[in-house]
């Protein structure tokens, strides 16, 4: 997130434009918590996790009255355009503001869930993926030494990208994701293949949806009392820490591209990346269209976890 804020700020200043940072997202726009940024406002930030602008989930912005207050502040501060960095919720808000108050909005995909249509990757996803992989590597030491089955719960809201790809990266035995079959079938498939076969330990990564890891661990405990089952919920440590090089570069490219898009007169689009090329996607499509998980990834995990 900070790498994106830095890139937007510096690319705009490079063009001779003025830049204002809005604190705590929509909440700050409603409250007028807005400060002018200089190039040094974003110094020493590219390596930092979290967001220097802070963030908040705003209930008031969900109401037309809240959005009207936000629009008033946009006029008051003389802002010509908003660059909104966030996931589905932030971009849905951006679209409403654009439609209701004729505001020029450019979206940047910022979510660890990677669930925005029209971009191969979202800012933060690669960092979270690497964090999960490192955690599972550590959990594996206990799983192996104690002959245990671990159900590790991974974030992602309604999407299984983090779960599926971190399962491949960490050599897990299975991934249970919202997109593949029904959840119960996935566990049944895993059990049907023989929980352990030749192995003395197993790691199953589970998306946080529908009861998450606890739910599956309980079921295995009941059906296979002979197994030593443990649960690990990774939680918010997945959302913190210094970003990977990939994420820093992605955020820098998308941030610069958002200013290029404004120069070209683009409005109400999200800037994304496809096949390593910058693309523009209407915000309406980015938030509404489903982004499917490639079946090949499911096949890779199934093939390699024998
Ligand atoms: O959308 C990003 C995300 O980290 C999801 O993966 C997760 O379900 C959610 O946010 C957690 O939100 P909060 O920090 O508000 O509990």
Which characteristics define this entry?
Rossmann fold, 44% helix, alpha/beta, 4-stranded mixed sheet, 4-stranded parallel sheet, 306 residues, 16% strand, 10 strands, binds 6-O-phosphono-beta-D-fructofuranose, 11 helices
The shape is: elongated
Report the CATH topology name of the largest domain.
Answer: Rossmann fold
Under the CATH scheme, which architecture of the largest domain would be assigned? 3-Layer(aba) Sandwich
Give the H and E element order.
HEHEHEHEHEHEHEHEHEEHH
Q: Termini distance?
A: 38 Å
Q: Rg to the nearest angstrom?
A: 21 Å
Oligomer: single chain
Description of the structure:
The chain is α/β, with parallel strands linked by helices and 306 residues long. The protein has two domains: 2-123 and 243-288, Rossmann fold (3-Layer(aba) Sandwich), CATH 3.40.50.450; 125-240, Rossmann fold, CATH 3.40.50. The protein contains eleven helices and ten strands. It has a four-stranded mixed sheet, sandwiched between helices. Strand 6, helix 7 (183-192) and strand 7 (202-207) form a beta-alpha-beta unit. Helix 3 packs across helix 4 (88-101) and helix 6 packs parallel to helix 11. It is elongated, with a radius of gyration of 21 Å.
